[in-house]
Amino acid sequence: MTALFEARGLSRRFGRVQALDGADFDIAEGEVVALIGDNGAGKSTLVKALTGNLDLESGQILYEGREVHFATPHDASRLGIEVVHQDLALAPHLDSAQNMFLGREIMRPGILGRLGFMDTPQMRQRSAQAFTELGSAVRSVVVPVGAMSGGQKQSVAIARAVAWANKLLFLDEPTAALGVVQTRNVLDTIKRVRDRGISVVLISHSMPHVLEVSDRVQVLRLGRRVATYQTSGTTIEELVGAMTGALDNQEGAA
Amino acid sequence: MSSTTEHQKAGSGAPMETSASHENLVERVKAMQSVWILGVLVVIIAVFGVLAPTTFLTPGNITNIAQNVSIWAVLAVGMTFVIITSGIDLSIGSVLVVSSVVAAQVMERMGDQGWGTALVGLVLSVVVGIFWGCLNGFLVAKANVPPLIVTLGTLSVALGVAQILTGGLDVRSAPAVLQDNIGYGRLAGVPVITIVALVIVVLGGILLHKTRFGRYTYAIGSNETSARRVGINVDRKLVQIYGFTGLLAGIAGILSLAQYGTTTIAGQSLTNLNVIAAVVIGGTSIFGGQGSMFGSMVGLFIPAVLQSGFVIIGVSPYWQTVAVGSILITAVYVDQQRRSTASGGRR
Amino acid sequence: MRSSTFRIAAAGIGSVMALAACSTGAPTADSSSSGAAGGSNNKTIAFVQGVAGDEFYITMKCGIEAKAKELGYTVTTQGPQKFDPTLQKPIVDSVTASKPAALLVAPTDVEAMQAPLEQAAAAGIKVVLVDTTVNDPSFAVSQISSDNIGGGKAAFEAIKKAKPNGGKVLVISVDPGISTTDARVKGFEDAAKADGTYQYLGVQYSHNDPATAANLVSAALQKDPDIVGIFATNLFAAEGSATGVRQAGAKDVTIVGFDAGPNQIKALKDGTVQALVAQQPAVIGSDGVEQANNALTGAPVEKKIQTGFTIITKDNLDAEGGQAAYKSTC
User: Cβ contact (<8 Å) for A91 and B346?
Assistant: First the structure.
């Protein structure tokens, strides 16, 4: 099976810290891949590198078999790749519909649109539709995001990414700050997104969540991929072992 | 929370609020700083109306007040944009002066008193204003110097340039058509300068609240990182916003020439602070992301009405500055309290 | 929470209004009831200063109030925070709206204040220009100001009194183009050239910077060590001149300053300057009220009055010189 998205030998150094040390990564179409690793293993750095948020010193990124370069997040977006950052990157003073369409506003038709006027009703309606489809906890598209609960903010950020990701979605620790019900919601969302044929990369510290939703697990340690497992054939103990380096099997069976 | 008249355009089960035309509209309106401060303005007007019924609430005095805030109103439009991006522009008074100096010198050399000369003056003034505004924007966005420092610098550089150009002497000639028609002309009893300002304010309000340019202005002030991540060219937007403010300062420069007939090089010394105070009183957050054009206009009228009223009832000038300062602090304090209760306190 | 916020805000704004209300009785405010305005026997005079809080204008206000009391008028005084027409115009507009019988005003710009003051005159208010003027003062019933040329002459007289044997004299002014200081320089120049025993060395501009004035004076003393007198047209020029004299090691140079605010009087007491040319702001003020009263009662009005000067030296500081000093309160 050819990978939808593949990275080979990515390296990046911050001062004396080798954040990425020849890291590899791959994901197939419609697949959910969990990316795990201890703190400082390079997970967030890898996500940034894969989504145009970070310059690389060496390595190559392949999209549908062709080599690509992402100078900005916009370049990744254009290929249908979206990311939900740990800090969500929402504008707190804007409402959820405004956040949803930020940078991609729907303009009024005709001359008004060319003058810069936006089609607010349509953006609100489409946002509401997106939230409903995801079973989101968001109940209003006209309340500033800053006034929402953590779970609602999370779901706005995910809904925004899902709405624009038609190929690949990165979720960086989406459940870290959430309660039980909201976490459930996020996991259901991941499955729903996968069912639409969109690949999902899940970064998480929670092994049960990883085992529940992913098809494969890739383990990062010290800036490189040290193991890849089929989720169906692995256990929490094995994953933790790979993360900490207790069982060192370089590049395990794929 | 929400209860009635949900728009069910989304189709399926969950009720989703998709418009502000809602029962808790009242709640939301009450939460708006600009409405709260509008109440303050109404109270102030009422108090003076009672204290000086025959002199304060006269058409003559009201048009005077409107005329006297007109130039500041034009500047406040730009300042509202800048402060919403969490920036500040201290240089507007100096940019106004240098724009009017360049325009006045050229118009003086042309010698003619007609509309053609006035039009050349307007174009020059606007071009000079845009130049200084874009310089501010470029330094803020590309050189990463804080806006407070950048505009403090251009404040003195622009004023210095105006002094160099003139040798420190005001140019005291503006085409007669400008002074007669714009500065002191009236249309149906309303000062023309006020009408000009009103048109600019309305256009500015539409630009801020209805267009993508305005939306990005809020986004940059609310969370610059997220604005960059969604692909907004933040640097270019900042240059445009500061440039726009400079453009308005250029227009204000011509209006000032029309109203005063001189370039007021030694004047306009408190213009920047007065305009900033008005915008902040009107509910625009100095931390960015929040504010409205309507609020800025209400904020502009509070000090103006206070001053007019105090002068009319004969209060000492010293107390006037105390009162305006107190209102400023009270307004921002209330705003902070309101915001921290409303949104769990960001900053 | 919200309601308590509102209460605090209400208290804040209430206190501001209360402050405003009680300030009408405070010593800095010159109260008059608004009820007096607008009537046929309107007895209010408004005074708009060039800048609030300046001793020159405060002394003028004292003169106005004393004369107004004598003639049975009440006075309200207003002034902008800075000497700035963009700040003064709204004040004049509001004063016009309050319809006083007469307006005494020190315009901050010859051009910018023209139209607002014409408007006041058109509203039937008797306008008297005090100290400064405008391009076309024909609307005003009277103009009262110091004779600045005479002031320059008086400065020369002061030098002549201290150095009767003649010698070289120099002027340190502020900037070219300021009408008042230019007139003072001209008055001094004319008087010095008319007197054959003195040699006029010309005028230098300090740009209102004491350090520049000091450099100018010490350089001038290098070239002409026998300078006997320096006329400094404002306070900074005087302070800088004194420093320059000390730097050059020269003694026995008479420095004459202008105006007599507390800082200038202190400079005189300290020996920084040897004489001061004091204007008579109180006289300007009381003359202004008198002319306004004449205009209101139909008596003949003097279109233009120029007031004189008092020379203050250490010797007369306890007598008429001290009385000529500007006041910070009445």
Answer: no
* B181 DSSP 8-state letter: I
What is the average per-residue pLDDT within C15-23? 49
The answer to whether residue B1 neighbours chain A at the CB level (below 8 Å) is: yes
Specify burial of residue A74 (Cβ count, 10 A radius: 0-12, 13-18, 19+).
middle
**CB of C9 within 8 Å of any CB in chain B?**
yes
- Closest partner residue to B10 (CB to CB) among A90, A103, A128 is A128
Judge whether residue A3 has pLDDT over 90: no
CB A68 within 8 A of CB A62: yes
Of the listed ranges A222-236, B207-221, C116-130, the least confidently predicted one is: A222-236
Are C28-146+281-306 and C148-278 equal in CATH topology? yes
Judge A/B contact: 3 or more CB pairs < 8 A: yes
Chains A and C touch (3+ CB pairs under 8 A): no
Q: Considering only CA atoms, which of B289, B150, B138, B291 is closest in space to residue B226?
A: B289
Separation CA C314–CA C276 (nearest Å): 10
Q: Measured between beta carbons, which residues in chain B are less than 8 angstroms from residue A121?
A: 18-19
| Per-window interface: B 61-120 vs C, CB < 8 A | 61, 64-65, 67-68, 71
Whether B317 has its CB under 8 Å from any CB of chain C: the answer is yes
User: Quick check: helix, strand or coil at residue C283?
Assistant: helix
B176 vs C203 pLDDT, higher one: C203
Residue A76 near residue A51, CB atoms below 8 Å: yes
Tell the CATH topology of C148-278: Rossmann fold (3.40.50)
Cα separation, B185 vs B178, in Å, equals 9
Say how far apart CA C59 and CA C324 lie, in whole Å: 10
Radius of gyration of chain A (CA): 19
| Radius of gyration (C-alpha) of chain C in whole angstroms | 23
Strands C74-78 and C44-48: parallel
Q: What is the ipTM of this complex?
A: 0.83
Q: Where are the domains of chain B?
A: 34-336
Q: What is the pLDDT of residues C239-262, one digit of tens each?
A: 889 889 988 888 889 999 998 988
How far is the alpha carbon of B95 from chain A, nearest alpha carbon, in Å?
28
Which residues in chain A (125-154) have CB-CB distances under 8 A to chain B?
A: 125, 127-129, 131-133, 135, 138-144, 146-147
Give the CA angle between residues B311, B317, B318 to the nearest 5°. Answer: 150
The topology (CATH level 3) of B34-336 is ABC transporter involved in vitamin B12 uptake, BtuC (1.10.3470)
State the Cα–Cα distance between residues A55 and C190, nearest whole angstrom. Answer: 77
What are φ and ψ of residue A42, in 5° steps?
110, 15
Mean pLDDT of C16-32: 43
Asked if pLDDT for residue B10 goes beyond 50, the answer is no
Contact of B210 with chain A, judged by CB distance below 8 Å, is answered with yes
Question: Topology of C28-146+281-306 in CATH?
Answer: Rossmann fold (3.40.50)
Highest mean pLDDT among A67-71, B115-119, B242-246: B242-246
Q: How far is B43 from chain A (nearest CA, A)?
A: 30
Crossing angle between the packed helical segments C55-71 and C281-297, to the nearest 10 degrees: 40
Distance from the Cα of B33 to chain C's closest Cα (Å) equals 12
Q: Quick one: pLDDT at residue C263? A: 84
In chain B, residues with a C-beta closer than 8 Å to the C-beta of C108 are 267
Which residues of B fall within a CB distance of 8 Å from C98? 52, 55, 311-314
What's the gap in Å between the CA of A251 and the closest CA on chain B? 33
Structure tokens at C283: 């006289």
C-alpha distances in Å from residue C98, one per residue of A62, A154, C104:
78, 60, 14
pLDDT digits (tens, 9 = 90+) for B61-95: 898 899 999 999 999 999 999 999 999 999 999 99
Domain residue spans of chain C: 28-146+281-306, 148-278
pLDDT tens for residues A240-254? 888 887 765 544 444
